[in-house]
Each structure stands twice: as structure tokens, then as C-alpha cells.
Amino acid sequence: MLEFFEDISDIIFGNKRIEAFKHFARSKDFRLKRKHNPELLPIDVLSMQIFKQNRKKRGIKGMIYRKENMLNILTQIFDLNFYNDLGKKTTTIYLFENGDMELPYFIITPKSSFGKLGNLFSSSEWSDVNKDFDNSFSVEASDINIMQMMLTIQFAEVMLDLKDFTVEGKGNHLAVYRKYHSTDIIDMDNVYLDGLELMDIILHDHSKEMI
Q1: 76 close to 95: Cβ distance less than 8 angstroms
Q2: Rounded CA gap, 88 and 143, in Å?
Q3: pLDDT tens string for the chain (211 positions)?
Q4: What's the pTM?
Q5: Which of 76, 102, 146, 187 has a beta carbon 3.0–4.6 Å from 65's, enabling a disulfide?
Q6: Centroid of chain to Cα 42
Q7: Alpha helices, DSSP H only, in the chain?
């Protein structure tokens, strides 16, 4: 119901967020969709943590997309809205797709202040890659061996640029987002470029492959 009244308001008064997406799309050679049904996203994407909640009360309003031909990557950037009785919460999601990737499921999440404090007394296998990354992020993966090959020094350095963002990967898809946070259009280009760099590292950095 809240989404319905929001749509009526958009028709009458316009939508500043959509207009901002439209401006970004024009300046960066993206295409724009005003709305998209989240249930039409690939199954791998819908199985990610950010999509598992409130499945009956969610919607995508504002989606921009483009094909990165040199990397063979489809990039989609959109606002995923969760609706409840108190209103809505919005997460801007950067979704990258490459048909040649076969990622096992993984999720990299920023550590809380308490988690960072715990790192003063212990460390994980990621401290050998980058101590700042190890202190800042937690890593869960269905195949830790592949994750150890994929998470290179270069990958960790890009993650440190993303700071408070979560990265989830599965199959042909990589999602970058900050939960319940709508990215300002001014910052959108930086997050988008960092996501592309992560994809480039996954696809082309073979420095840790086993021989």
C-alpha cells in the first residue's frame, strides 16, 4: 500500500531520486528503467543475504544499466526498497554480471567496532594478505580454498576503499552495497568504479592460482 501511494506521489509531484538517476545515466552512458520487478533478478542474486528479507514487501524504483564491452560485464545500479508499517528502507545495490564467472558463494562484511577490537588480540588468515583488510572485514565463503586464491593484495586494497560496504558473490554475479544506505549520486561513480575493479581482479588476476 505504501508503495502504491508513493507511485501516485511520483506521478503528481515527480521523483527527485529518479531525476538524479536520469542525470547520472546521461553523463555516464547508462540506460534507465524507472521500475523493475525484483523477482525477475537471477536466482543467484535473489539467494544473496540482502535479498532474503521481506520478499513480499520490496521493490526496485530506479535502475540504471550498461554493458562494459571490454570486460564483458553487465552493470546494474538500483535502489532496493523494503516496505513495512513504519515506512521504507532503501539500499543502493551495484550488481555486476559476467557469464564466464563461476563464483562459489561468499560474503565480505564490515566489522563492527567490537569486531575490530577483537583483532587486537587475534587475527585470521587474511592478515597475511593485508592486515588493515583483516582488521576491517569478516569473510564467509562456501569454498575457502577458492576464496584464498581470489582474495589477493589488490582485491583487499580495493575493499579498503569501499570501507563500510558489503560484497557478496555467487555464480556469475557480484553485488556491492551498504545495507539500508542510499548512495548519494555524487559518490555513485566511485563505488561503481571500485566494483568494476573488483570484477577485473576476479576475472584477470591469477597471481595466486595454484600451479
Answers
A1: yes
A2: 35
A3: 445 445 444 433 347 899 999 999 999 999 999 889 999 999 999 999 998 866 667 889 889 999 999 889 999 999 999 887 777 889 999 999 999 999 999 999 999 754 444 444 344 677 778 899 999 999 999 998 888 888 999 999 999 999 899 999 999 999 999 999 999 999 999 999 999 999 999 998 755 553 3
A4: 0.86
A5: 76
A6: 15
A7: 2-13, 16-28, 43-46, 113-118, 131-136, 144-150, 153-162, 185-204
Alpha-carbon gap, residue 70 to 98, rounded angstroms: 12
DSSP 8-state assignment for residue 88: E
| C-alpha cell recorded at residue 5 | 501511494
Other residues' Cβ atoms within 10 Å of the Cβ of residue 33: 16
Cβ-contact 90, 180 below 8 angstroms: yes
